[in-house]
Amino acid sequence: MKPCPFGTHRVLEPAGALPQAARKLDNRLPMQANELLIQVETLNVDSASFTQIREACGGDKEGIADMILQIVRERGKLQNPVTGSGGMLLGRVQAKGPDFPGDVQIGEQIATLVSLSLTPLRIDEIKEIHLDTDQVDIRGEAILFETGIYASVPRDMDRKLALAALDVAGAPAQVSKLVNLGDSVLVLGASGKSGVLCCVQARLSAGESGRVVGVCYDEREAEELRALDACHKIILADARKPMEVYSKSLQANHGRKFDLCVNVVNVPDTEMASILPVKDSGQVYFFSMATSFAKAALGAEGVGSPAAMLIGNGYTPGHAQFTLNLLRSHAGLMSLFETRYGGKD
Ligand code: NAP
What we know:
Layout lengths: L10 E3 L10 E2 L10 E10 L1 H10 L4 H15 L11 E10 L12 E4 L8 E10 L4 E10 L5 E3 L6 H9 L2 H9 L5 E5 L4 H14 L4 E6 L2 H10 L4 E4 L5 H10 L6 E6 L7 H5 L2 E9 L6 H10 L5 E4 L7 H11 L1 H11 L4
Helix pairs in contact: 3-11, 4-5, 4-10, 10-11
């Protein structure tokens, strides 16, 4: 029987599930004709997942390594059982099945664009844990299914910088589709990795007549965002405190509600801070993996908000190139990524 394009041939339990929803994947099955085998160098753990693991381990690197190894041993994939999210990886193509589509070459360095929460993974060694970038250097192997998308690592930028940007490539690409000229946009988590990309893109898409307001948690990161000149106003607030965000953000927008709120924080309980400041005709884009569907849906109902709420699909066609080009086109953004994620000491 031909192996499944979506990878169900590797689902051990529960029967009938797709790999993302599966509790356990078979990461030992020999490589199938429609798969790609990758020698993994670095895992870019999803920020919500890494934050949860780091906090559960009190920031101890050995504890974090043990927890990551245990998850992968139990699940055959790096899917955080609390957040449900994964991340993505950087590695070299080790083997390509004859039925795997595309012209990727053996030895080519690639970043996967599908979640680690559905990617069969085996870790032989954890070499280093980078607490500041959520990245983990390992020795191991991963499998990409026939429908799994990936990007070649560009030659004109540091590979870990590219990995960081590609992890959140869907966010700025979606923002470019959601924001119209003249719109007001509120970004929660504005100085984080996807936050800075979204702020820069929102400013470009909203144009001169628009307004972009960024909500930051950390004054040092806010300073880095300020230097990009992407936001008309930056406010410091805790996104877990909806009334604080509501009053400060409306004040920063001349007392008016927003057309769009982009939620790119990495902690739970920020749904209402995203919904309250948005117009009835507006939209809330929940990119954060710490978002609770129940809290957003029931919370919006509870305050009588009919705003449209969008689940932050990590994929939109062309998102990888879009985001790499956004970085290339903005010297300040590139410099910030180099300082934070690689390419600059
Ligand atoms: P990041 O770089 O860690 O940024 C998160 C930001 O949120 C940081 O600036 C952080 O500030 C801020 N923050 C934390 N707690 C806050 C609070 N209480 N109030 C206000 N701001 C707060 O994360 P990222 O890589 O950009 O990812 C952002 C989100 O997108 C995460 O939830 C991640 O899981 C999700 N994600 C989704 C997809 C998808 O496919 N939908 C793909 C990748 C990532 P501090 O640094 O000061 O804590």
